[in-house]
Amino acid sequence: MDLEKKPRKWSAYESALGLLARREHSLLELKTKLKQKGYEKSEIQEAVEKAVLRGEVSEERFKRSRVRELIRRNFGFRYIVQDLSSKGVSLDAEAFEEIAEAMEDQRESPFEVYWRKIFQHEFVPDPKLENRFLRTAVRKGFEFSEAKKFLEMKRQNQ
């Protein structure tokens, strides 16, 4: 029994536009998703090139959008850098600087957010809660030493 390919409803380019209509994508993400949809490598390359030429996809725009989203969700510098790298976004010294600046512009420290969630606004010296706070901060991409300093500061202020 010979299985024939079904005619596609959309071209690779149209599928790419559909993906981009939902959110920004990196070039790697876009290529991967089109490949998962069963498009040929040449179709994918042509569609991505066309989208880039028309300004419909931009690594820079994706990077800014993704950094804002991760900062809004209280992730740290290391997590953000790793996430962008996993999505195929190359980072130079200027990009690191931009991420650091964006993190400084945050209205509230992510540590304060974790603090409220874990300690419910009142500090109670509890090693289990303190360890939970530290694990959360490290898991979210912050340096252990930064989280430890914050915890020490809170202890002293209580």
- Quick one: biggest sheet? none
In the CATH hierarchy, the architecture of the largest domain is Orthogonal Bundle
Give the low-pLDDT segments.
none
CATH superfamily of the largest domain: Winged helix-like DNA-binding domain superfamily/Winged helix DNA-binding domain
Derived structural class: mainly alpha
Helix content: 55-70%
The value of Rg in angstroms is: 21 Å
What characteristic shape results from the CA principal axes? elongated
Strand content: under 5%
Distance between the termini: 75 Å
- CATH topology assignment of the largest domain: Arc Repressor Mutant, subunit A
Mean pLDDT, to the nearest integer, reads 87
What is the total tally of β strands?
Answer: 0
Tally of individual domains? 3
| Structure annotation, total helices | 9
Q: What top-tier CATH class of the largest domain fits best?
A: Mainly Alpha
The arrangement of helices and strands along the chain is HHHHHHHHH
Protein model, in words:
The longest helix is centred in the middle third of the chain and has 14 residues. The model has no long low-confidence stretch (mean pLDDT about 85). The chain is built from nine helices and no strands. The protein folds into three domains: about 50 residues, Orthogonal Bundle (Arc Repressor Mutant, subunit A); about 50 residues; about 50 residues, no CATH class. With about 160 residues, the protein is mainly alpha-helical. About 70% of the residues lie in helices and about 0% in strands.
